[in-house]
Each structure stands twice: as structure tokens, then as C-alpha cells.
Amino acid sequence: MREIARKSREKEVGSQLRLVGLKEMLRQELREFVVSAGMTALSALLEDERTAICGPRYEHQAERVARRGGHTRGELVLGGRRVSVKRPRARGVDGREQELPSWKQFSAVDPLHERALEQMLVGVSTRKYERSLESIAAPVKTRGTSKSPVSRRFVEITAEKMHELFNQDLSGIDLAAVMLDGVHMADHLVLVALGVDAAGEKHVLGIREGATENATACTELLTQLRDRGMSTGKTTLFVLDGAKALRKAVLDVFGERAKIQRCQAHKIRNVLDQLPEYMRPSVKPVIQQAYACNNIVHARKLLTNLMRTLRADHPSAAASVEEGIEETLTVMAMKLPRMLERFLSTTNAIENLIGSVRDLSRRVKRWRDGAMIVRWTATAVIEAGKKFRRVAGYKDMPHLVRALRAHDLIELKEKIA
Fold this sequence. Notes:
Elements: H1 2-54, E1 66-78, E2 81-92, E3 97-98, H2 101-108, H3 112-121, H4 129-132, E4 142-143, H5 147-166, E5 175-185, E6 188-197, E7 202-210, H6 215-227, E8 236-240, H7 244-254, E9 258-262, H8 264-273, H9 280-292, H10 296-311, H11 315-322, H12 330-333, H13 338-344, H14 348-361, H15 370-385, H16 397-416
Helix pairs in contact: 3-5, 5-15, 6-7, 8-11, 9-10, 10-11, 14-15
């Protein structure tokens, strides 16, 4: 009985191993089968369409409008590469070639640019592009997967993305707030503008390359936004990191219609950098308490007291607290709901966007020129924008809009007076 049971188990195990081997063989050959079957079906479809144009082979037709013209080699896109396909030809009575409908449709679709872009975005280098594709075991000739053509396609698609960003019409976006910041890449700095509309949706507005974060580059970026439809006739909140060049550019372009909020997170870091290590744990909670109290009078009092405390022994830190103190409280003065106030009091949202640019730029070993930097940055911000969510506290955006329109009304009354 034991011997019978042992043989039965061995037979069962052997059957399982054979089944696993069969499945593995099918798995390896399935792609080749699908490609071969697809190529055969395509050839049959094209031949049927030629027959519909030229009529059945070897049959006389008194009113024949076209004749067969043999075959030629053409190319279609398959699996991220170009494959060579034998294409039947048909010529009209005037000698001109007749286009087959299916060939026209298949050859008109060229997904290679988007495929190259997607591979680069996920970290595949141009040299490794071919290795990242699924193999085509069927005996078909392929091309377009080496470094040079992939690089050309990537340059073309990123240039299109850049043109799309630079020519986006902003007149249809009801902007309530704009955040500005820059990212250093090699010897260049790229300024990025992020907008928040009245519904709480985020929008990448534009980018501008420059050598430094100077007032000229900032002004040109804002001027471009204005020329593309961004309104300068109503008050807009600008959230900045504290750079004087950004502030000057905003006031030059938008004037009295700009309400400036200095990033509180940057302010805290700036103050702490002026202090010795042992004092930072005691000073940081005081500043945080001031920005978290949701009462501008109390916040101003806490910051003023801190400034006086530091003035004697640490004048630089005291000066940092005092500098721009009112602009760090701009949003608090609007008395917005807490969640929305916290969102608009820092540049965290645009820093997250710039983080996406840095993540993508780390894959580049050598920047050839500023144009390459702009193309990559434009591509990165557009791709990041596809994943945007509405801002924290978006349901309270009407509070911000009312506060901004109230400022417009005050400005109007002052002009009339």
C-alpha cells in the first residue's frame, strides 16, 4: 500500500511539473504568437482593401479604376519601436498610387514621442531605452530604439510641451493667489509661477530662466503672465519666499493690486540662522506660536517682544524678526478659516512642485545649455500639474476672494476721494 501511495504521489508531482513547464513555454511564446498573428491579420486586411479597390486578382473588369502595383516596404509603430511591414500597393489608371484606408490610419498615429517622454520621466536613459521595451520575438525588422533617435524624439516632445506652457491663455483663469519661487539647475536659475484660482484649483502659470533670481528676470516672468491674459486690474495675493527681487518685480508689474504674503517657514529659518545652536530650541516655539495664534494683534505683540529680547545680544536675529514683519501676517489679517490661512502663509505648495523638477533633473548627468534646462523644467511642471489636487481649505476660498475684492473697493474709494 505504501509503495502504491508513493508512486501515486510521484505521478502527481510529475504531472504538476509538466504543467508548470507547459505554462512557462506558452508564456515565452505568447508574445511571438500575438505579434505573428497580428502581422498576418494586418497583411490580410491590407490585401482585402487592395482587392476592394482593384477588384479580384486575374478577373477581367471593364470599369477597373485601379491596378495592383506589387509590394513595398513601409513602417509602423509597435511596442515603442518602428517595425518594417510589407505593404501592398495599388495604382489608379492615371498612374498615381491609391492609399489604403487602414495603412493611412495606422501610419498616421505616431505614439513614439509620448513613449520616449514617458520612459525618460520614469528614469530610463536614452541608452537603455531599447532594453526597457518588451522584446518582439517574431522575425520582424525594427529600428528607432538607439540613443540618437530616442534623444531626438525626446527633444521634440519636450519642445512641444514648452511651447504649450509658454502659450497657455490665462484669461480664463480667475486667479486669487500666485506663488513664486526659483530652482537652481547647473549655472542657471528657473523661476516658477504657481496660481490658485477662486475654486481652489492649482495651475502652473509659467517659468522663466535666468542667471540669478534678479528683479529683471522676475519682472519679465510676471510681464509674460500679464501678456498672456493674467489680470492686473484686481487685487491678487502673492506668496513669496522673501527674496527682494521677487517683491520688487511684483510691485513693479501689479502695483497697488498686489497683496504680498511673506512665507512664514522661510522667515523662521532666516531668524534661526542668525542665532547660536543653543538658542534655537527656545526661540523657534515663540515664532511658531505667533504665526499659529490666528490673532494679528497678539501675533504682532509676540514678535515685537521677541525682537526686543534679541536686540542687545543678537541684533542680526532681531533685525531678521523685524524685517517684513507685517508682510508675514498679511493672510492672518484677512481672518480666513484656519486651514486656508495656513496654506496661504507659506510657499510649501510651490516648493513641492519644484521638488518634482529636482527629482527629474537628478537624472541628467550634463546640462548642455539653458534651452535644455527650460525644456526639462517645462516638462516636469506640466507632468506634476496633471496630479494636482485642490488646495487645503478650498471650500473657504470665497473668504479670500471677498477679502481681495474688499481691498479693491478701498483702493477705489481712495482714488475717488
